TrEMBL record, chain B:
This is Alpha-ketoacid dehydrogenase subunit beta. It holds the Pfam family Transketolase_C. Residues 5-180 form the Transketolase-like pyrimidine-binding domain. Its cofactor is thiamine diphosphate. It comes from Streptomyces tauricus. The lineage of its organism: Bacteria, Bacillati, Actinomycetota, Actinomycetes, Kitasatosporales. SUPFAM superfamilies: Thiamin diphosphate-binding fold (THDP-binding), TK C-terminal domain-like. InterPro entries: THDP-binding (IPR029061), Transketo_C/PFOR_II (IPR009014), Transketolase-like_Pyr-bd (IPR005475), Transketolase_C (IPR033248). CDD domains: TPP_PYR_E1-PDHc-beta_like (cd07036).
């Protein structure tokens, strides 16, 4: 993430909120940056500067930020087309993400990927995949590789509730369990597979956690809008997996603030449900925890202002960035950098 | 070294040579370990390299190829077996959407150095779901290299090139050739992908073939030689990279082209090849091009029915005979 240097908070002087609060403040600020990046993506789309589509993760920030906080920097992360928050949580900057959405040469993927394929391989954030469920076996393979190389790394696949009804989910869980691999499956259950309630198309209440035991994997659930709860759950499962005790699965209940994609106003969601979840906003939950820890309100205001400034600067920089060279369309098919397929 | 080696043994030997050379090479697939593979094409690997490098999997084609991709992106050189090439359809998402695209859509951030090996083609009476020649499926997707050797030595040399390739390679091993024998490959034998071989020289007609169709083309050429028709046979060996220049070089001599494909005429690889010849080699031709390919029906079970569908020596010889009289 854009880990902005944090101002010292209390603990060094023996007064004030302490290191727990300082850590939570940093997570809060990461979530604030993601929230504003998603809002910027939304606004830039409406102003015609973002083409195609976007699948915004506003409302689901705590899953990415909480999980990321519990991982090693060299762990592997695989995400879905709703993956801006995961790219940002693993070290992509708002500028390189927004530049990618805006088809700029400075985008994360040189404008060859777009919103659905944000990737930061240098941070082992190994991609966002737009075929539902396809990346779960990839995470299994990365975990297998980590085991073979003896690196102690973990692989994490984040996926939506809809992915629990596709074959690759089931093949991945079974293989990971049989091979006892260091992989975590983290389901972001936002209650809707695209436009349809997941409960309408799934025979069990917790679509991921209820299936996991069938593969010998303990299935856990967590409040996906509580960054601290997510961090603790992932830390526990990660420790277990790293110790050789096999894969873990965590189902995080959360809610998206926007529709499925840009084309979707999400009119199918009952107003009272939306209202209930908006009152359980992950940023508000973190603010409440920070207040309990004695964090002064003005410190939070300052964090919000820093997040706003970072994203505003990112938008301005991305707007100024050049378009890709059209000739780049014929590069990067093969490892030699080219696209030559015949003599 | 033995005087001859079977195509089947060559598969295991080709993989073993690379596993000895590079500890990053690992194998995964159904029944490939202690069982040695249903076609015995991995016989001996488990005994030599152990369970840490030869991994039996469940019947989960998506997990097999997906895990191979994840491992390839993170420092390994996996060799995944899909038992029958028909089953590529069970993991087609990985061949069509994931493996060939991830390098491009990330702007070159990752590479996917993996090999997907698979037993391809007919001739063994396995019926419509275990006999297809599916090499043309892979040809529809930019970003996959496609190898299909015809001889044991080429199996070993092309396996070395495929495993060493930093690009994904779909490696079609032909079921009908497994029992065939040929000279063994010398040590350190590498056949770079994308180099066709002129396996018989001739002046009158060029026959271009792949895998099992190479011996069919050579048999037809022998028969036609008795009739005074001098046939050149080009073993294409790979579909990507496609060695068009060797084909055009041959046509500069013969001016006549017949392509022999086991895959269906409909969507077969010969369509791509002859379109390039029409575009870039029209001036070399003295006759229309001809394609001898499988009929556009599912592969039938009975031998007498299958022979009706796939190219045979008789069909190839008849086509060449007609064309040489044009």
């Amino acid at each position: 993430m854009t880990r902005v240097p944090q101002p010292a908070v209390g603990s060094e002087t023996g007064t004030g909120p302490g290191s727990e609060a300082a850590e939570l403040l940093a997570l809060y600020e990461e979530m604030a940056v993601i929230r504003r990046t998603e809002k910027a993506a939304h606004d830039l789309f409406l102003s015609g500067l973002v083409k195609g589509t976007t699948h915004l993760a506003a409302g689901q920030e705590a899953v990415a930020v909480g999980a990321s906080a519990a991982l090693r920097d060299d762990d592997y992360v695989f995400a879905t087309y709703r993956g801006h928050h995961h790219a940002l949580a693993r070290g992509a900057t708002p500028e390189e993400c927004l530049a990618e959405l805006m088809s700029r040469a400075s985008g994360l993927c040189g404008a060859k990927g777009g919103s659905m394929h944000l990737t930061k391989a240098s941070a082992n954030m190994l991609g966002s995949y737009a075929i539902v469920g396809a990346h779960l076996p990839l995470a299994v393979g990365a975990a297998w590789s980590a085991r073979l190389r003896g690196t102690g790394q973990l692989a994490v696949a984040f996926f939506g509730d809809g992915a629990t009804n596709i074959g690759a989910f089931h093949e991945a869980l079974n293989l990971a369990a049989v091979w006892r691999l260091p992989v975590l499956f983290v389901c972001e259950n936002n209650l809707y597979m695209e436009y349809t309630p997941i409960a309408d198309v799934t025979a069990v209440a917790d679509p991921a956690a209820d299936r996991a035991p069938a593969y010998g994997i303990p299935g856990e659930t967590v409040d996906g809008n509580d960054v601290v709860a997510v961090r603790e759950a992932v830390a526990r499962l990660a420790g277990r997996a790293r110790a050789g005790d096999g894969p873990g699965l965590l189902e995080a209940r959360t809610y998206r603030h926007y529709g499925h994609s840009r084309a979707d106003p999400a009119a199918y969601r009952p107003a009272e449900e939306v209202e209930r979840w908006l009152k359980h906003d992950p940023l508000d939950v973190a603010r409440g925890r920070l207040a309990e820890l004695g964090m002064p309100a003005e410190t939070l205001v300052a964090a919000d202002q820093r997040a706003e400034a970072v994203v505003q600067a990112a938008v301005e920089a991305a707007k100024k960035a050049p378009a890709p060279d059209p000739r780049d369309a014929l590069t990067d098919v093969w490892a030699d950098g080219g696209a030559r397929w015949r003599t | 070294m033995a005087d001859v080696i079977t195509y089947r043994q060559a598969v295991a030997e080709g993989i073993a040579r690379e596993m000895r050379r590079d500890p990053a090479v690992v194998c995964l697939g159904e029944d490939i370990g202690a069982a040695g593979g249903v076609f015995k094409t991995t016989a001996g690997l488990y005994e030599e390299f152990g369970a840490g490098r030869v991994w039996d999997t469940p019947i989960s084609e998506q997990a097999i190829v997906g895990a191979a991709m994840g491992a390839a992106m993170t420092g390994m050189r996996p060799v995944a077996e899909i038992m029958f090439s028909d089953f590529l359809a069970c993991c087609w998402d990985y061949l069509a959407n994931e493996i060939p695209k991830v390098r491009y859509m990330t702007g070159g951030q990752v590479t996917v150095p993996l090999v997907v090996r698979t037993a391809n083609g007919g001739g063994l009476g396995f019926g419509a779901q275990h006999s297809q020649a599916t090499e043309n499926w892979a040809l529809t997707v930019p970003g996959l290299k496609i190898a299909a050797p015809a001889t044991p030595a080429d199996v070993i040399g092309m396996m070395a090139a495929a495993i060493r390739s930093d690009d994904p390679v779909v490696f079609f091993e032909h079921k009908g050739l497994f029992a065939g024998k040929g000279p063994p490959a010398p040590p350190d034998h590498v056949v770079e992908l994308g180099h066709a071989a002129v396996v018989r020289e001739g002046d009158d007609v060029t026959l271009v073939a792949l895998a099992s169709m190479v011996p069919v083309a050579l048999s037809a050429a022998e028969r036609l030689a008795e009739e005074g028709i001098d046939v050149e046979v080009v073993d294409l060996r790979c579909l990507v990279p496609l060695d068009v220049m060797t084909v055009l070089g041959s046509l500069a001599k013969t001016s006549r082209l017949v392509v022999v494909e086991e895959n269906p005429y409909q969507g077969g690889w010969g369509g791509t090849l002859v379109s390039i010849v029409a575009d870039e080699g029209f001036g070399l031709l003295d006759a229309p091009v001809r394609r001898v390919a499988a009929a556009c029906v599912p592969l039938p079970f009975a031998d007498v029915l299958e022979r009706e569908v796939v190219p045979t020596v008789d069909k190839v010889a008849a086509t060449v005979r007609d064309l040489s009289a044009y």
